[in-house]
Amino acid sequence: MDPCFKCMGACCEYVMIDISKAPPDLSWWWSLHGTNAHYKGRDFIELDARCRLLDKFGKCTSYDFRPDLCEKFEVGGDLCRTAIKRQRGEGAIERILGDEK
Question: Residue 69's domain spans which residues?
């Protein structure tokens, strides 16, 4: 079964914003409304932001015309695994992807 079908769009339920280049007042606001994260040596803020193009099953309704960022997101890659763990819980990676990296 397709891992994305099992996952139901965990990667499309929040955004990670690199705060290293953001103006201090904007970084401050984001930190009040999001969660601090560290990924590959950089600091991010994670904000809940479910994509409006997801249907009730977590599938993209505009898959063929999705943004470049979504197109570059690798199924089973580091960011995919991070999203699954964050949104679906610790044990979900094995259940969804069928392995544990």
Answer: 3-97
